[in-house]
Design brief:
The complex is a heterodimer of chains A (173) and B (102). Helices cover 71% and strands 0% of the residues of chain A. Chain A has 173 residues and is an all-alpha fold. Chain A has two domains: 115 residues, NADH-ubiquinone/plastoquinone oxidoreductase chain 6, subunit NuoJ (Four Helix Bundle (Hemerythrin (Met), subunit A)); 46 residues. In chain A, helix 1 packs antiparallel against helix 2 and helix 2 packs antiparallel against helix 3. With 102 residues, chain B is an all-alpha fold. Chain B has a single domain, classed as Helix Hairpins, CATH 1.10.287. Chain B is built from three helices and no strands. The longest helix of chain B is centred in the C-terminal third of the chain and has 31 residues. Chain B is elongated. The N and C termini of chain B lie far apart (60 Å). The chains are: A mainly alpha (173), B mainly alpha (102). At the A-B interface, helix 1, helix 2, helix 3, helix 4 and helix 5 of A face helix 1, helix 2 and helix 3 of B.
């Protein structure tokens, strides 16, 4: 019983930080702060994955998202501003429409959740799932797994092609 | 009151709506991309929560790993496009980028 109470307390802590950082992403005036808020959200969600006994997904989340995607976003922010702009503005427009629509949508989702038969019973912890994920990736999901690697190669080349500066013929040589 | 599957689903719903509001209100292209990441994370949280509570087994987590890989790929391509737009227009405000050619 003690362990469950501790897990519940941890859930509320991480849920609060997730929503707090997500609010920062949605409403902070500075784009850099929004990107750092995304980093906090992703870390909190990774901790929630840990609480859900999804150890492999939690580590993947931290390595790929926090270590890769957020850094990429920060590079994107710094590469797409003029150097003389001290603050990168990230203004919100139409928020007086978007926020009420979002609240209505949230109400609809909550209504759907509360009126559907979701099992409330706690199931026994399954333990670490890394071995099972490995078996699934190299068994049932072998083809998607290989397709993902082809996609990553295509993305590598495509991003290089898109992001390079065009060299004009007269500048060459 | 102990934490159940419903708590995770509600949290994911809040995250999804926040991502959608970000998507709708931001005018900086990178801000819009941040909203997309929030939405993808809400979906991932749902998948892992269902998997933990005995619905679908380990497949939910496998699917989450795929989604994370595709989200990374999507971010790379989108930021490359944003850089190309910046070189061309000298701005990344999505309102001002209205031509596909020249």
């Amino acid at each position: 019983m003690e362990a469950r109470t501790l897990k519940d307390a941890l859930f509320w802590a991480f849920a609060t930080s997730t929503v707090g950082f997500a609010l920062m992403v949605a409403f902070h005036q500075s784009l850099v702060h929004s990107a750092l808020g995304l980093m906090g959200t992703l870390l909190s969600v990774g901790c929630l994955y840990g609480l859900l006994d999804a150890d492999f997904v939690a580590v993947t989340q931290v390595v790929v998202y926090v270590g890769g995607v957020v850094i990429l976003f920060l590079f994107g922010v710094f590469l797409t501003k003029r150097i003389e702009d001290v603050t990168v503005t990230n203004r919100s427009v139409n928020w007086y429409v978007a926020v009420p629509v979002g609240l209505v949508l949230l109400a609809v989702i909550l209504y759907a959740l509360l009126s559907s038969p979701i099992p409330a019973a706690e199931v026994a912890a399954a333990g670490p799932t890394t071995a099972a994920i490995g078996e699934a990736l190299l068994g049932r999901f072998l083809l998607p797994f290989e397709v993902i690697s082809v996609v990553l190669l295509a993305v590598l080349l495509g991003a290089l092609l898109l992001a390079r500066r065009e060299v004009k013929p007269e500048e060459r040589g | 009151m102990h934490v159940t599957l419903l708590h995770y689903l509600v949290l994911a719903a809040v995250l999804f709506v926040l991502g959608l509001v970000t998507l709708a209100t931001r005018r900086n292209a990178i801000g819009v991309l941040l909203g997309i990441e929030l939405i993808l994370n809400a979906a991932n949280l749902n998948l892992v929560a269902f998997s933990r509570h005995g619905i679908g087994g380990v497949e939910g987590q496998v699917f989450t790993v795929f989604v994370i890989a595709l989200a990374a790929a999507e971010t790379v391509v989108a930021l490359a496009i944003v850089l190309a737009i910046f070189h061309h227009y000298r701005t990344v405000e999505v309102d001002r980028v209205s031509q596909m050619k020249n």
